[in-house]
Amino acid sequence: MTRRIKGAEIARAITTRVAARVAETAPGGRVPGLATILVGDDPASDVYVAAKRRAIREAGMRDVHHHLPATATQDQVAAVIDALAADEDVHGILLQLPLPAGLHPAPLIDRIPVTKDVDGLTTASAGRLARGERGLRPCTPSGVVELLDAEGIELRGACVAVVGWSELVGRPLAQLLLHRGATVTVAHQYTADLAAVTRPADVVVVATGVRGLIGPEHIKPGATVIDVGIHRTPEGLRGDARTDELDGIAGRITPVPGGVGPMTIAMLLANTLQAAEWDAEHEAVPA
Ligand SMILES: Nc1nc2c(c(=O)[nH]1)N[C@@H](CN(C=O)c1ccc(C(=O)N[C@@H](CCC(=O)O)C(=O)O)cc1)CN2
């Protein structure tokens, strides 16, 4: 039997811990504040930002939100980020992706101070991750590592295939895993013989945005499959893995929904708490 990894439950436990810590420190100290910026009306982004804002409030944090029209200019988005960067009550700033066509995400993200980069996506945070220095890590990759830890999967010496090259997931995840002593191979949707890369792996993480890319031909019996993909289909939400076909082959698999998705939000709260605690200690992000 293939075990379903209960991401939603693990995320709830993290969220509860964060909320308890906020309640403990808020009376004397400052309430952590997280600002979300949504540009345009992408329906999936609407759902994700609404879920983030709900989680922020449930954790006892301050919810600051800016919704700009799809016609907003690069300068208008930059002005919102700059104002939040200067606001002492805001400890984290998140620019929801993707942005509408015509806006360039990288220069906007890089206006977020590294101390408030709770999404871990600035060049400065990426540099810290590459060097193995302390800092705020991207939420989905750190959520994946938390899931593997919660399942008791030993990463040191494990053979892990990361399928996907995105800046949001694949590339930072490969680095996080390397820092944990895993042997990491990065592949993607155009890898010529994908099965040759994934079949030897103890853990396969798939984050390509290609529905059903990974099937039984890609997975060693007993291996763990972490499915980061989310596709809205007439049959409901589906991932990048053909989960039904992997039943009885994979040792463990994350479901979609209820797997990696909720971890992204839990790690965002954990990062915001961390940013607020560093701020309260008057520490820059410690090296
Ligand atoms: N600035 C960012 N933009 C985006 C990120 C990110 O980490 N930072 N990640 C993704 C989307 N995302 C968060 O924004 C996200 C995706 C999925 C979920 C989630 O809880 N999914 C549920 C299903 C919910 C549904 O779709 O109905 C699940 O898998 O169980 C949360 C957050 C892109 N943009």
Automatic annotation (TrEMBL):
The keyword ATP-binding does not apply. Its EC number is 1.5.1.5, 3.5.4.9. It comes from Actinacidiphila reveromycinica. Catalyzes the oxidation of 5,10-methylenetetrahydrofolate to 5,10-methenyltetrahydrofolate and then the hydrolysis of 5,10-methenyltetrahydrofolate to 10-formyltetrahydrofolate. This is Bifunctional protein FolD. Belongs to the tetrahydrofolate dehydrogenase/cyclohydrolase family. NADP(+) binds at G164, W165, S166, I230. Homodimer. Residues 5-119 form the Tetrahydrofolate dehydrogenase/cyclohydrolase catalytic domain. GO terms for molecular function: methenyltetrahydrofolate cyclohydrolase activity; methylenetetrahydrofolate dehydrogenase (NADP+) activity. The lineage of its organism: Bacteria, Bacillati, Actinomycetota, Actinomycetes, Kitasatosporales. Pathway: One-carbon metabolism; tetrahydrofolate interconversion. One of its GO terms (biological process) is tetrahydrofolate interconversion. Pfam families: THF_DHG_CYH, THF_DHG_CYH_C. InterPro entries: Aminoacid_DH-like_N_sf (IPR046346), NAD(P)-bd_dom_sf (IPR036291), THF_DH/CycHdrlase (IPR000672), THF_DH/CycHdrlase_cat_dom (IPR020630), THF_DH/CycHdrlase_CS (IPR020867), THF_DH/CycHdrlase_NAD-bd_dom (IPR020631). CDD domains: NAD_bind_m-THF_DH_Cyclohyd (cd01080).
